[in-house]
Inverse folding.
């Protein structure tokens, strides 16, 4: 939705319009990015237009959205590309139309964008593997539940996880590694349930995003395994935070999506004003555990303030 | 029989008008029906009979006019209102739910129930009774209607209408697929209803039937009433003259034709749905009639012959060569053409135009360099429409908008256009008015003279006796007897069809056209 | 005599036919040594049954619709919408019973809208419900603010608990609810006038109308009832997830339709049965469960389920052909 | 006289009717000051046209199928599969022309399989293609190894470039390809024997058989041709994405079907036209484009598009009713 513009709207000058294009609109992760972008918009006095692909995670549709914003003639674009190649051409088209693009969250090939603001996803997977390996003492049977075919950021997390397990914890046996949880919580739930039926003696689980983590959490709770096995997930939501507190989850790798959205907008506006910008900005990942979850910085990440987005 | 003038008529329809787009189907028609009266509604194809009756049943809302039942205004907004108002109707086109059983169809909309729960025993009993009444207790109440032959389906519809016990019973060509025996039984039932003060409106193109069963009549022509009165003292010729506006003499015009060598031979042909293998010969220029009761297997034989049903054994020889391909397209390629007895379900694509329906089996003449030329198609179809006197707005009208008889003519027109050399006609004159019938007989004769061979299935014995060279009789799937037409009479045919054996030495009587 | 026998045999086939597929699927996995022991355990059966609840409820209503000659593509969106509404109500502090009622009624309203559009505007159900699919999904996302709605745990969440609270229930209350409603719907379809009319409308609508059946009323009722079932299914979805998720159940309408068709329903109307549908639901659930247990990759699973749908219907088809 | 006029009017309505919806949608956005200037620009129209190519190609084939009384739920999966195959071939070093051919033929094969199953096993198309939907999608993921396939840029990727290489083309070559094939299919449907046969099969299959039409052959051909179009559409998808993505176009089959139905196609068969379908495609594309430009949230867009589908078909319905 279009945001009421900041103080400069009254100044009479044309306010800048920045399109922020996420991969989807319904995960909490994207809500946080939205919140960060809106905060930057307020501070800088620019309009934020928030619009994802009509169908979640559909590359073709995201290209369409980018094209439509080029048609509309926005001043700048902040884009979380669903694909590191497929979005190259529309981004180049934007560059040709003198619309700067800042890439957030996932990488993009080619050099037609102004800056890349993102989490190191691979590192997130590494953190998760270490946590799991340490808690299990380097020995045990674990699941790697994947998110969805072809999703680049989660593929990196899964790779970081699998590589680290192979390298640092050879005693961990990955029982399942090519099962995909699918797009929704329900599909993740069913998958985890069925896997637990098959391998009731599993000792650890890693899931690479919010929906797969929550679906798995529900399955563990239902089969009475919550807290009995080591479970490390990714991203946060109130139910996951609750799980962390209850001891059902032993670790959540969290990113800083609000910061991603905030810096994305800041960077593109800085570029528009002719200021120099960094080509790569890392927004950092941290591991939240029961012990550190109440530390102020972690707490802010676990339960981001979304109150400023008004729709 | 207006010998009770004091009592108000059970039904009065006055000034009924209805148009479909540019077609004025009815224009100010009046009709009166007395208690215990059987009133015939007659007219040419497309005269507006069915439309009139659909208005009465509530299936169609009229543009103009008023109706009264027992002196009270009656304006149904749907068929449900009509039924509750005491009008029940047998529609011209089959009106059954194919997945439901015979019993379920008979009781449809009037299920005996106790506060919403089906009362199965009661339903069974009533269905049994009414099937007894039409003398077909052998029809199983549990069999899905979709599996019955057309004739049996028509009996189911009659049973449903009889069960309703309505004040007014409308029958739109109820006997078009019935044998004479079943028709006679129906007339008995109708006469019985007369005693119960039920008013019956009877539509049929079998004028002899009409004359014997009806007390009074109304004749429609082009959507207007052109005459009505008591049946007594009105001759057939008078009726026909009213219908068509001119004198009409000969129902069965004789077209001289000679039979040549055999063109079609069935050698122990056995289709999947045929009870027994059938063998027969058909000569060039011959019209071979097939008689039999409903379910006797005539349709099944034609369907197997044409490749519509799976063939299990036997051979079909056309002009000396055995047919290899067993699908309809292969048969059409060898000059066969079939007219289906089920014109709505199979015979016609109702939402396609008259032109497409008539030319579908032979589009080649309109093609040049791979492309069709619709103008040519239309011209050629316009010619056929004229020739067959089809009442239609033009070649582009969807065939579903035509009256029943005119639809039948379109189906016939297709065979003419196809220029088939062996015509398999399954009840070709069903629903066709008298004058058009005689016209069709004339064409059939003409086709025979051109050397085409014709298999003519009919349950209407007079026409078999009237135009065929030879008649074969089916009984329970077997071809039991085949003789020159001159060696049959109506009674002999009936006997052969019912008991499977022709009475020996039947005297060759004068052909009885009734 | 032989006819008698044949019809007896075909009747037996007719009754047990639908089970054949289910038995085959179960046997398939029961014979694979790798999962055998795990697959055949009671706990696994219970878990499959619980997973089936959502599809089963949707399929009960869908059976009515398909028998009446219609189709409902909005079922899955409707489920998501109802789950969101329930979560919203619980979250807003409504008593769980009220929240449940709201959820179910929301579903019913969407169904009613479908029915009204189909009958008033005389549109094909495919289109109406396809449009409604977008509308309901959009509404769900709107109400949920594009997010999951977290709601406090209440007894609603017990409905789909695998280990139910009064332990003599043995199975999740949701499963009992399905069994109850399935029985009720089977009776409705077979033994009531309304059921008969649903078949008639599906078999030949024109005939039904001419026989005085109020076809429009039948259709509106069928869609409304089906909507109520979707609503209940949405409540179960919420119960299972403990959150109201507007993106849940995307594409589930096809699973639901597949279950009905595998169970012998005909998309041309006039055919279908509740028993068949329930077996169709179980076949799909067991297939998913078995494939996951085998550790087969998802694409194999997708391919197998696609193939099974075709094969199941082909077998059903053969069965019918023999019969006549 | 007045009769003449009326039929003239209704003929005019018939010809221009389909355009009304399109004009309305364009007018809607053209009147909103916020986007007005941008919306009505040539560049935007070109971009909408390019976005429409994929759905349009799928819809060309779907029109044939729907006119013939069938339906194809596997269209979108087929598009994804073809795009993967094309990418695979390019990646494996095949000449672009060969890769294109492989992609198109893959689509054709899937279509052929659909047709063969529908005719040989006498199954309802809904089920066959629903099964095939899973099979094709699974196969695409399998071949792609559960990932997208990166392929080097070739001239195939120029097919969907908004600024085409020989600049006198003005629009993406893909758009010209659609126009070309649309014209060809329109002629096929209206002016060839095969086209008449398709209408006949869709209107009443039994009649078609009776008239010596090889209904099975017509159906197999229709599905195969439609499959080829899906294949081509998949190539275009690859051209646009520059990668082969097995998860692309999920749910697109409903968009494709909606386009055909908005354009006057009847799911009962026997009705439909290429012109109508193309207008249906554009209506959907302009709606999406306009909504995005307005920056309306997705759920609003979902609701609006759902409603528009219903309204468009309702208008079409009214138009038809007047006529008779
Ligand atoms: N639904 C319709 N749409 C357009 N025209 C129609 C429709 N139904 C009937 N008509 C026209 O109304 C006229 C009267 O038709 P109707 O069916 O009443 O004739 P009929 O007397 O029953 O003829 P038949 O003896 O052939 O059954 C015909 O010209 C027919 O074309
Ligand atoms: N009373 C009945 N009960 C059940 N099935 C019947 C009945 N009458 C006919 N059939 C079915 O119809 C088949 C034969 O009907 P068919 O249409 O071939 O006979 P027909 O001589 O052409 O009769 P019609 O005069 O009705 O066209 C039988 O094999 C049977 O399956
Ligand atoms: Mg009539
Ligand atoms: Mg017959």
């Amino acid at each position: 939705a279009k945001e009421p513009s900041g103080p400069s709207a009254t100044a009479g000058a044309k306010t800048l319009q920045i399109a922020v294009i996420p991969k989807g609109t319904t995960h909490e992760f994207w809500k946080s990015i939205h919140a960060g972008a809106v905060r930057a918009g307020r501070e800088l006095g620019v309009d934020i237009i928030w619009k994802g692909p009509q169908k979640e995670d559909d590359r073709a549709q995201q290209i369409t959205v980018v094209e439509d914003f080029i048609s509309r003639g926005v001043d700048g674009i902040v884009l979380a590309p669903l694909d590191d190649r497929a979005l190259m051409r529309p981004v180049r088209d934007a560059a040709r139309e003198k619309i700067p693009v800042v890439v957030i969250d996932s990488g993009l090939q080619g050099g037609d964008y102004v800056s890349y603001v993102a989490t190191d996803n691979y590192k997130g997977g590494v953190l998760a593997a270490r946590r799991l390996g340490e808690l299990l003492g380097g020995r045990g049977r674990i699941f790697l539940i994947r998110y969805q075919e072809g999703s680049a950021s989660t593929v990196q997390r899964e790779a970081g996880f699998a590589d680290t397990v192979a390298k640092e914890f050879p005693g961990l046996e990955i029982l399942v590694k090519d099962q995909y949880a699918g797009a929704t919580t329900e599909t993740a739930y069913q998958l985890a349930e069925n896997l637990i039926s098959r391998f009731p003696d599993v000792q650890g689980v890693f899931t690479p995003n919010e929906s797969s983590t929550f679906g798995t959490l529900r399955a563990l709770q239902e089969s009475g395994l919550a807290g009995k096995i080591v479970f490390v997930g990714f991203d946060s939501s109130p139910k996951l935070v609750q799980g962390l507190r209850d001891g059902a989850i032993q670790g959540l790798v969290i990113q800083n999506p609000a910061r991603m959205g905030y810096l994305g907008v800041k960077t593109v506006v800085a570029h528009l004003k002719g200021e120099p910008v960094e080509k790569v900005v890392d927004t950092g990942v941290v591991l939240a555990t029961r012990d550190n979850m109440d530390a102020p910085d972690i707490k802010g990440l676990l339960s981001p303030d979304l109150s400023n987005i008004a729709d | 029989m207006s010998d009770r003038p004091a009592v108000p008529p059970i039904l009065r329809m006055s000034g009924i008008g209805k148009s479909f787009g540019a077609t004025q189907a009815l224009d100010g028609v009046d009709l009166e029906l007395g208690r215990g009266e059987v009133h015939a509604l007659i007219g040419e194809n497309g005269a507006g009979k069915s439309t009139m009756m659909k208005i009465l049943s509530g299936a169609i809302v009229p543009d103009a006019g008023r109706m009264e039942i027992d002196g009270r205004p009656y304006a149904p907004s749907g068929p449900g209102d009509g039924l509750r108002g005491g009008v029940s109707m047998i529609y011209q086109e089959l009106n059954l739910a194919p997945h439901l059983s015979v019993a379920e169809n008979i009781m449809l909309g009037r299920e005996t129930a106790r506060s919403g729960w089906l009362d199965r025993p009661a339903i069974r009993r009533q269905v049994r009774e009414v099937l007894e009444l039409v003398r077909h207790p052998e029809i199983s109440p549990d069999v899905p209607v979709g599996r019955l032959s057309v004739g049996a389906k028509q009996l189911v519809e009659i049973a449903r209408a009889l069960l309703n016990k309505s004040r007014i019973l409308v029958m739109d060509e109820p006997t078009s697929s019935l044998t004479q025996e079943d028709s006679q039984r129906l007339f008995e039932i109708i006469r019985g209803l007369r005693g119960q003060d039920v008013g019956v409106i009877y539509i049929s193109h079998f004028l002899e039937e009409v004359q014997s069963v009806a007390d009074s009549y109304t004749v429609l022509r082009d959507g207007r009433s052109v005459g009505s009165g008591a049946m007594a003292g009105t001759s057939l010729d008078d009726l026909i003259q009213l219908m068509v506006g001119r004198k009409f003499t000969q129902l069965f015009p004789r077209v001289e034709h000679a039979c040549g060598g055999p063109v079609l031979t069935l050698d122990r042909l056995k289709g999947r749905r045929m009870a027994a293998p059938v063998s027969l010969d058909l000569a060039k220029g011959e019209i071979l009639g097939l008689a039999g009761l409903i379910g006797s297997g005539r349709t099944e034989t034609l369907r197997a012959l044409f490749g519509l049903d799976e063939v299990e054994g036997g051979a079909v020889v056309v002009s000396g060569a055995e047919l290899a391909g067993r699908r309809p397209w292969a048969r059409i390629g060898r000059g066969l053409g079939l007219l289906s007895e089920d014109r709505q379900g199979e015979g016609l694509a109702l939402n396609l135009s008259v032109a497409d329906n008539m030319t579908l089996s032979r589009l080649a003449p309109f093609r040049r360099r791979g492309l069709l030329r619709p103008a040519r198609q239309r011209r050629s179809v316009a010619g056929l429409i004229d020739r067959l006197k089809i009442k239609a707005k033009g070649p582009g009208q969807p065939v579903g908008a035509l009256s029943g008889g005119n639809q039948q003519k379109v189906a016939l027109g297709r065979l003419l256009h196809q220029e088939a050399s062996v015509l398999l006609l399954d009840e070709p004159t069903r629903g066709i008015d008298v004058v058009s019938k005689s016209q069709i007989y004339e064409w059939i004769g003409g086709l025979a003279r051109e050397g085409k061979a014709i298999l003519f299935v009919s349950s209407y014995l007079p026409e078999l006796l009237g135009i065929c060279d030879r008649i074969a009789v089916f009984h329970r799937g077997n071809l039991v007897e085949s003789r020159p037409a001159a060696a049959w009479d109506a009674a002999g045919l009936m006997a052969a069809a019912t008991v499977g054996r022709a009475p020996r030495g039947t005297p060759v009587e004068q052909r009885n056209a009734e | 005599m032989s006819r008698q026998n044949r019809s007896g045999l075909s009747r037996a086939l007719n009754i047990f036919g639908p089970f054949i597929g289910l038995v085959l699927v179960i046997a398939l996995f029961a014979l694979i040594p790798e999962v055998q022991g795990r697959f055949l355990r009671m706990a696994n059966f219970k878990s499959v049954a619980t997973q089936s609840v959502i599809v089963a409820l949707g399929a009960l209503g869908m059976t009515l619709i398909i028998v009446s000659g219609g189709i409902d593509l909005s079922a899955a969106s409707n489920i998501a919408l109802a789950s969101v509404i329930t979560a919203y109500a619980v979250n807003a502090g409504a008593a769980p019973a009220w929240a449940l009622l709201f959820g179910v009624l929301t579903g019913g309203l969407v169904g009613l809208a479908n029915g009204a559009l189909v009958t008033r505007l005389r549109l094909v159900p495919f289109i109406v419900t396809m449009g409604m699919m977008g509308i309901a999904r959009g509404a769900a996302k709107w109400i949920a603010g594009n997010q999951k709605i977290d709601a406090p745990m209440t007894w609603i969440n017990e409905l789909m608990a695998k280990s139910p609270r009064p332990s003599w229930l043995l199975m999740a209350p949701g499963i009992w609810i399905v069994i109850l409603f399935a029985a009720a719907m089977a009776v409705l379809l077979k033994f009531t006038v309304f059921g008969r009319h649903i078949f008639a409308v599906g078999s030949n609508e024109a005939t039904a109308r001419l026989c005085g059946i109020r076809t429009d009323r039948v259709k509106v009722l069928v869609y409304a009832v089906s909507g109520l079932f979707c609503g209940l299914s949405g409540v179960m979805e919420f119960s299972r997830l403990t959150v109201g998720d507007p993106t849940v159940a995307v594409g589930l309408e096809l699973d639901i339709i597949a279950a009905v068709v595998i169970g012998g329903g005909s998309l041309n109307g006039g055919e279908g049965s509740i028993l068949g549908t329930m077996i169709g639901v179980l076949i799909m659930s067991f297939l998913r469960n078995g494939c996951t247990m085998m550790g087969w990759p998802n694409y194999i699973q997708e391919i197998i389920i696609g193939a099974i749908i075709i094969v199941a219907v082909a077998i059903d088809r053969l069965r019918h052909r023999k019969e006549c």
Notes: Chain A has ten helices and twelve strands. Confidence is low (pLDDT under 50) at residues 1-12 of chain A. The interface with chain C takes residues 25-26, 28, 31, 56, 149, 176, 178-180, 182-186, 189-191, 193-195, 197-198, 200, 214, 218, 222-224, 237-239, 311 of chain A (CB under 8 Å).
